Amino acid sequence: EAGVTQSPTHLIKTRGQQATLRCSPISGHTSVYWYQQALGLGLQFLLWYDEGEERNRGNFPPRFSGRQFPNYSSELNVNALELEDSALYLCASSRGQGPSQETQYFGPGTRLLVL
Amino acid sequence: QKEVEQDPGPLSVPEGAIVSLNCTYSNSAFQYFMWYRQYSRKGPELLMYTYSSGNKEDGRFTAQVDKSSKYISLFIRDSQPSDSATYLCAMSTGAQKLVFGQGTRLTINP
User: Fold this and answer.
1) Fewer Cβ in 10 A, N or C end of chain A?
2) Dihedral sign, Cα of residue A112, residue A114, residue B2, residue B8
C-alpha cells in the first residue's frame, strides 16, 4: 500500500511570494491534515480537510489556506510568504469515520525555505 | 503553559538498554494517545496508538497511559542503534487535531 506522498520535496521562495504544496493521501483515506514543523516550535496543526470541506483550522493567519479535491488529494497555499514560514510542512491522512479516524499517517514533508 | 510537555533531551543510552520516554499534558479531554518516531529529514512514523488509559505492547515497544496523572510513557526494550531518532508524543480529544510534544532526540550508542 502506497503511503502519503507530497510534492515538491523542497521549495525555495522569496518574501512576498506564494507557495503551493501538494499532498496525496493513502488510498481509502478521506481526511487530509496539514502540519507545520518549524525549528524550535514542534509540530503545529494547520488545517483539516474531509470530503472536500475544511473541518478545522489551527492558529494560523488566513494567508495559509488550502483545498481538497474530489480524489481526496489536497493543496496547501501560503500567500505573502514571510521568513518565519520557513519550515517542514507535513501532510497526514486518515480514514474519515470510526475509531481509526484518529490514526494519522504522515508523508515525508515539503521543506519550504523563504529567503 | 503548553498543552503537552515533553523533555527534548537529547537522550543517549548504550545499545541494549531500556529507554523510557515521557510526556505530561494538561487537557483532561485528551482521549487518544500516540507515539511517533521521526528520523532525520523524514516524516513522523506512527509507532503506537492507545485509546484512554492502560498499556499496549508491540514487540520491543510498550506504551502506557495514566489519565489520572495526565502522564504517558513509551518504553523501548533491548534498544538498537536503528532506534536512534526523535520520538514525538501526540494526543487528541477526538476533534481530529493532534497536539504534539516537542519531541525527544534519542541516540542509541553501539
Assistant:
1) N
2) positive
Return all residues near B59 (Cβ < 8 A) that are at least 6 apart: none
DSSP three-state, residue B81: helix
Check B45 against A106: CB less than 8 A apart: yes
Cα dihedral across residues B35, A38, A12, A93: positive or negative: positive
Distance CA B73, CA B55 (A): 9
Cβ <8 Å between A42 and B101: yes
CA torsion sign for B79, B85, A40, B63 is negative
Which of A56, A101, A106 is facing B43, going by the closest CB pair? A106
Residue B32 to residues A71, A75, A77, B54: CA-CA distances in angstroms? Answer: 28, 27, 29, 11
Q: Give the 3-state secondary structure of residue A49.
A: strand
pLDDT of residue A100: 52
The alpha-carbon gap from B77 to the nearest alpha carbon of chain A, in Å, equals 24
- Banded model confidence at residue B51, pLDDT cuts 50, 70, 90: confident
